Structures are given as C-alpha cells and as structure tokens.
Structure to design on (86 residues):
C-alpha cells in the first residue's frame, strides 16, 4: 500500500494530501530512509515522522486489503513518541 494512503487510513495523519506534502518535504521516513508518497509499505516497516519538535516512529503491523470505516484492528504500534526540549 502507498505510504500516503496508509498514513491516512491508519489515522496517523488526518488527510492524504497532508501526508503527501509531508513525505514530499522529507519529514517522513521508512526504515530510516527518506520516503516518497508512492513508496510501498510492507509488514514490519518502521515509519518515522518529524512533526515540529515531536518525533514518532510506528511499526506497520497490519495492511488491510480493503480499508473501511468499520475496521477497528490496529494497523501500527508506536515504537517511539518523543518530544525534544531544544
């Protein structure tokens, strides 16, 4: 599944256009490497997000075939949620 779509349906980012803009600007990574919106995610990948002073890392644990509103299954687990005090 595309990175921007995954970020939206997993609710890590509220809108797909915002997810695309963040990936284009270089604040999103997959397994430590800068990611593009169209990069494909696999189970076990670690997504890194730098949002202001906050850094979030989440491991992909589920990629639904047909995402829907009734899906309550967790799609990721938080590996790191850190706020820097610079």
């Amino acid at each position: 599944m595309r990175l921007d779509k995954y970020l939206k349906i997993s609710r890590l980012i509220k809108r797909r256009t915002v997810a695309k803009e963040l990936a284009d600007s270089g604040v999103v990574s997959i397994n430590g490497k800068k990611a593009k919106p169209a990069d494909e995610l696999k189970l076990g990948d670690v997504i890194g997000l730098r949002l202001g002073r906050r850094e979030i890392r989440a491991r992909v644990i589920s990629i639904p075939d047909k995402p829907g509103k009734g899906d309550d299954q967790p799609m990721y687990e938080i590996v790191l949620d850190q706020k820097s005090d610079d």
Q: What stands out?
A: The two ends are 35 Å apart (CA to CA). The mean pLDDT is 90. The chain has one domain: 3-83.
